[in-house]
Amino acid sequence: MWKGEKSVMIKVCKFGGTSMADGTNLLRVKAILDSDEARRYVVVSAPGKRFGGDIKITDLLYETAKDVRETGRTGEAFEKVKDRFRGIVRELNLDFDIETLLLGTEGEILRENSEDFAASRGEYLSGRVMAALLGIPFIDARAVVKFDAAGKLDGERTFSLLREALKGKPRAVVAGFYGEDYRGKVKTFSRGGSDISGAIVARAAGADLYENWTDVSGFLACDPRIVPSPARITALSYKELRELSYMGADVLHSESIFPVREADIPIRIKNTFRPEDEGTDILPTSKYRFTGRTVTGIAGKKNFTVIFIEKSLMNAEIGFTHKVLGVLFKHNISFEHMPSGIDTMSFVIDSEQLKNGVLEEICEDIKAAVSPNNLRIYDDIALIAVVGHGMSRNVGTSARLFGAIAGAGINVRMIDQGSSELNIIVGVDNENYERTLKAVYDEFFTEA
User: Which of 52, 224, 303, 319 has the fewest Cβ atoms nearer than 10 Å?
Assistant: First the structure.
């Protein structure tokens, strides 16, 4: 567990869409920021859902972009966006000219006629309102977050521009989710990218802690939709976060650790609606301490396809793997795992990539490239990752894992263990996914 909280002087706080959904929630955010003078820099998302059936502002803006593209007008979706922001300002009783800002934004959306630009306006407007509420400067991410010609974050330039923009500003609000590409056009991160924006600001500000505020009190050890009231994870490492986020634990965007990793900045997940809850610390190696648990968390995904290749003396055939990978490259296919044996090789691929005849084409190309003795397809496979630094410290972890699965009467279709011994991934039929998660959770988290 990280022990440096008392010395924290700069905290960067990112607030998610639920935290920004209405005026009442913005006042919660203000109270959180006002309660700790170390909370200096704020990154905001676009307003999210206020209730079941509500529509996120970002989704309305994507619809707005479609309306502009097809009709040349912003349409009904943008009217809803304007109503939401008018309502927020009204609920805050804020002396802020939202009408002029909305009118200008609408004109820009029409002129730009860009999906990325339209989508970014949720964070932009949210940031403007939050800065007015707090009475502190607003920094437009377009001016300080830069992407290169390949569409990747230009880290060196971005950190330099942000450091300069923050200089002399004890506090500031920065819009999340977007920046500017090499052509001078607005470009967004992938959905959930405000988490990345927050980490970028934390790195540029030299923060002691990056707080990510959302609507849950940290990471849970398993999906609560499958396992009722799973244990909360008090602390995990960057590496554990990557494994769990990749396999479906979506509290935090998995790419958000990269801007802060080299600077050894810890991340803390906190709940805007229960700020007193401890949350979860995500720690760099230098600050991580073993928690004592064998398994930190369990996560998974459904709907994978396995391409199984068998050929005698495969290991002696120079370039065999290269040829198969060349087929996947030709079809622009990425794979998740590649379990192998002396004469066998399997590729685990997200089934979504293999629709519309792509799988059949790949199989034919593999046969032509390497002439396998056997090529089989297994579909409807679910992957479950069991993750934890404690797995390598405890004898018999694998035996417990597979004993629990066998005890539930479930057949394991695939096994893949990382060389770091941080995780074991098992493949089961989709229909056994929930039962497997429950069995594994009970084995490692339920007291006898």
Answer: 52
